[in-house]
Amino acid sequence: MLKKTNKLIKKTSAKSRGVFLFSGGLDSIIAAKILLNQGIKVLGLIFKSYFFNEKQAVESAKQIGLEFRVIDFSKVHLKIVKNPEFGRGKNMNPCIDCHLLMFKKAKQIMKKEKFDFVASGEVLGERPMSQNKEALFLIEREAGLQGLILRPLSAKVLPITLPEKYKWVKRQGLQGIKGRARKIQLSLAKQFKIKKFPSPAGGCILTEEVFSNRLGELFEAQDKLAKNDFDILRIGRHFWLDKKIKIVVGRNQEENEKIEKLKKLKDVLMSLKNYPGPTILIRNYSQKKLSEVIIKKAKILLLKYSPKAKNQKDIQLEIVN
Q1: Cβ atoms within 10 Å, residue 294
Q2: Fewer CB atoms near the end CB (10 Å): N or C, the chain?
Q3: Is 43 left (phi over 0), alpha (psi -120 to 50) or beta?
Q4: CB of 27 within 8 A of CB of 181?
């Protein structure tokens, strides 16, 4: 039944070893802690991309004494965001493809470094797209890890895995959580004396509607993109003047400063010298020089969001090429 994974199974050792997909959220903190408390050697794999970083996960791993490794898979992850094989959720989130990519990387490390199994903090039924039974089994099958993915928080409501069967982990110490409620996880956090963890409402930015809309527009405008292009989607008001030129308008001083730092070589910054107002960035994805018409439209937007400069005749512009 498990021909594909039987080759990966090694004899039971005195101390089993697992690689863990560690996001740094409450679920992954508790799931990893359950394994650590059983004396299992756990290596946390922390993934970073253009759409999420490693900071929270690193902080959480240090809090519970979890050995970890940061893996930057930005370029390959971007490919699946653009064209996911298994579709997207409500917005631009390719959850199944994303999880599958992580599990495939985990499998490579498991085989190369002779770990026994892969684990994650997934909870059955918590995420509608990627954490239903069909999705969980699909990911196991596509990753070639049938029976070797342990989900400590939902183990008792899922089929028994090889780590449990071969007693690499103690099944009685695992949980049977399902659904979106976090009551049991919060109780376990208290029991394990875990005081710091991010709010469950955080989530992946690819699930956010505004960011997803901006990302979709960006994909239509340009093929060759870098981290800077995605970072700027997180701030300001965005306006496309045509299919290749966009304007980003800062909404406060903090955003103005970020916009200035995100300026690329071909970008133009515009602001007012003698009145308070936003910083505007003009990003040109075309090969053409910015026309006077574009500069004029940018000035109109600048004044629109500078109420103290309204109807003033002594306005002075500062333009940085």
Answers
A1: 18
A2: N
A3: beta
A4: no
Domains of the chain: 3-205 (3.40.50.620), 208-320 (no CATH)
* DSSP codes joined into one string, 156-216: GGSPPPHHHHTTSS-GGGS---BSS--HHHHHHHHHTT------TT---GGG-HHHHHHHH
Tens of pLDDT, residue by residue over 194-225, are 989 987 755 689 999 999 999 999 999 999 99
CB under 8 A, 24+ apart: contacts of 240-247: 241/294, 241/297, 241/298, 244/284, 244/285, 244/286, 245/282, 245/283, 245/284, 245/285, 245/286, 245/290, 245/294, 246/221, 246/282, 246/283, 246/285, 247/280, 247/281, 247/282, 247/283, 247/297, 247/298, 247/301
| pLDDT tens readout for residues 116-169 | 999 999 999 998 889 999 999 999 999 999 999 999 999 999 999 999 999 999
Residues ≥6 apart with Cβ < 8 Å to 260: 269, 279
- d(CA 276, CA 308) in angstroms, rounded, equals 7
Determine the Cα angle at 123 with ends 119 and 124, to 5°: 115
Query: 55-64 vs 26-37: helix axis angle to the nearest 10?
Result: 30
Q: Which residue has the tokens 């002594």?
A: 314
Average pLDDT over residues 261-281: 95
Q: Judge contact between 283 and 248, C-beta under 8 A.
A: yes
293 vs 67: CA distance, rounded Å: 56
What strands, in cross-sheet order, belong to the sheet with 268-272? 237-240, 245-249, 280-284, 268-272, 317-320
Residue ranges in 21-94 assigned as alpha helix (H): 26-37, 55-64, 74-82
pLDDT in tens, 13-34: 458 999 999 999 999 999 999 9
Least confident residue range of 30-39, 53-62, 121-130? 121-130
